Structure formats: structure tokens, C-alpha cells
Input
Amino acid sequence: MDIYLDTADLEQLRAGASYGVIDGVTTNPSLVAKTGMPFAEIVPKILEIVDGPISFEVLSTDCDGIVAEGRKLAAVHENVVVKVPIIREGIKAIKQLASEGIKVNATLCFQPLQALLVAKAGAAYVSPFIGRLDDISTDGMELIEQIVQMYANYDMATQVIVASVRHPLHIQQAALIGADICTVPYSVFDKMFNHPLTDLGLERFLADAEKIPK
Ligand code: G3P
Output
């Protein structure tokens, strides 16, 4: 399973990329707003840090506007993936952008049938938001299982990006289900490394190593 960072924060991206295990990045308008930087400034900077698919979201909500924004974004760099909301106009725009060879990440997916529609429209990726479903007492991971199963049934090429991740267990569950990608906030990525027994074990090994005759 590929791991993406779900952030536009340049320091977090640099720190994450330094481990060599980050495959891509997803952003959204809320994450870009948090940086306090203009969108046009942040795009090239993110593209410099991570060499992999990087999703930037359109702001238009009508088909022509989405397509125009999508073309502009895609022209910036080959790694750019155009994030399009799953609304009626968005589906039409996905069909058009995909027919031009532009990779689309269909976002704000909360229902398996939305995932079916965007796959039929030719989206390269779909982003089901599991944490926001969990937040309203609905099993977000069940949505991932259903989409993965549905795509497998019909050999659909759209890749599933597990999004709105809240804790490390979400990443583990996503990988066990067989999701293609999990996009994680830096704070959650950082928790993947830790186990107290690893720290204790290393401490003991190093202490015992001192006892080895030189
Ligand atoms: O990038 C989309 C998604 O991951 C947002 O997550 O935490 O705002 O629900 P969240």
C-alpha cells in the first residue's frame, strides 16, 4: 500500500519525505489555508519536495470551470493530480478531464455508489473520507471494504485512497483490506514508528553491547 501525506505544510512534507517511504501527497483547500501561503506559491514548493502523485483541489463547482481549472493545474507538472468533488458537475468534469489523459482524484466520497460513478467516469483515484464517517457513528472502514470489493468485482482501474485518517490503526486496517493508498496527516504518520518494546529492546542491546570484551 502506498502512503501519502495529507498535508500542505512544507516542514511536515520535508520531514516525512526524509524517511524515503512517502509515495505522494494530498491537499485540500482547508490544508492549503492552514499554511497561510498563496496557492500559487505552495504548489511548486510541494512538487519539489515529493516526487510522486500530488493532489491539488479545484474550487469551481460547474463542469466548465472544473475542467478549465483542472487543465491549468495538470499543465503545471506531470505529477499533479486534479482533485474534483463528487457532485453532478464534478462527474461530468471527471469524464472530460480523464478523456484528455488528466489524472483525477474524486474527493468527498462517502458512499459506494459515488465510487462506482467516478470509476465509470474514468477517475484515476477515489478518496473515501473514513474519519468523517466515524465522526458521525458510521463505520468508515466498511466503506473502504465495499469500494475495494466493488472495484475488484469489475476489474475497475480507479485506485482507492483512504482519506480522513484519524489514527494509526486506520492505516493498518486499510492495508489489511487491500486499499491501494492511505493518505495520512503528519501527526498520524509520526505514530507509525513507535513501540515501547522497540525502545526498551534497543536500550538493553546497547547496554549489553558495553559488556562485550573489546
Ligand atoms: O484530504 C482529505 C481528507 O483527508 C480530510 O481529512 O481530517 O479533514 O476529515 P479530515
Q: What stands out?
A: The two ends are 44 Å apart (CA to CA).
